[in-house]
């Protein structure tokens, strides 16, 4: 391995006549680059693609994701948007953002360009999973979609406990008609059988 010097390196630089090899886990530390699209090419630190940006970051430029300084020149660890050329970020920060945003929401955080930005990030070794953003998955909203299912009366009288809910009768569970975030058994709040709605104290 051209990075750690140990045997077993299986990733070879795809540049013609380059015989440098490295372990995939050593790539980032050795400034090597692996592309996660097409034929999944790999490059050593000498032959990896560089960004063709017209300018370096201005002094006191901060990463748009972590808000820490990015340095005063573009490098392997400092990347910029190819469209607006004003958005700068750390490689590790934009990789984390790509994993969370997925292909449908990953775009420049400043100019909102998506097509050229994604193409450049893929070329520069950023892995962009083909999926919706993590914050829109069903699991992210599972807790919000769950129906409240217990009696919140100060003294719950139900012998089977607060989570007991029957279709009708004294242990029928009514949810607050305004917020649906609290509930009560009919008997626990002295509600008649004819009562169809109930509001919690907060509402």
TrEMBL record:
Record keywords: Ligase, Metal-binding, Zinc, Zinc-finger
SMART domains in the record, alphabetically?
A: PHD
Q: GO CC terms for this protein?
A: nucleus
Gene Ontology terms, MF aspect: ligase activity; zinc ion binding
UniProt-listed SUPFAM superfamilies: FYVE/PHD zinc finger (SSF57903)
Question: Which InterPro entries would you find in this protein's record?
Answer: EPHD, PHD-type_Zinc_Finger, PHD_PHF7/G2E3-like, Zinc_finger_PHD-type_CS, Znf_FYVE_PHD, Znf_PHD, Znf_RING, Znf_RING/FYVE/PHD
Q: Which residue range or ranges hold the RING-type domain?
A: 63-112
Q: Domain named PHD-type: which ranges?
A: 1-48
Entry protein name: G2E3 ligase
Native source organism of the sequence? Psilopogon haemacephalus (coppersmith barbet)
């Amino acid at each position: 391995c051209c990075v750690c010097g140990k045997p077993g390196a299986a990733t070879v630089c795809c540049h013609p006549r380059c015989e440098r090899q490295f372990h995939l886990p050593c790539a980032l530390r050795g400034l090597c680059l692996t592309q996660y699209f097409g034929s999944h090419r790999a490059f050593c630190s000498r032959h990896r693609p560089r960004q063709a940006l017209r300018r370096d970051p201005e002094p006191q430029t901060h990463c748009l994701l972590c808000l820490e300084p990015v340095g005063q020149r573009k490098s392997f660890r400092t990347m910029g948007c190819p469209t607006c050329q004003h958005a700068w970020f750390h490689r590790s920060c934009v990789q984390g953002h790509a994993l969370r945003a997925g292909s449908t929401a990953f775009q420049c955080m400043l100019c909102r360009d998506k097509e050229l930005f994604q193409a450049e990030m893929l070329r520069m070794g950023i892995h962009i999973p083909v999926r919706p953003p993590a914050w829109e998955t069903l699991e992210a909203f599972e807790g919000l979609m769950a129906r409240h299912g217990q009696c919140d009366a100060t003294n719950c009288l139900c012998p089977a406990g607060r989570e007991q809910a029957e279709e009708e009768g004294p242990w029928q569970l009514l949810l607050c008609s305004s917020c649906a975030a609290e509930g009560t058994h009919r008997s626990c709040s002295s509600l008649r059988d004819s009562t169809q709605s109930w509001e919690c104290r907060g509402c």
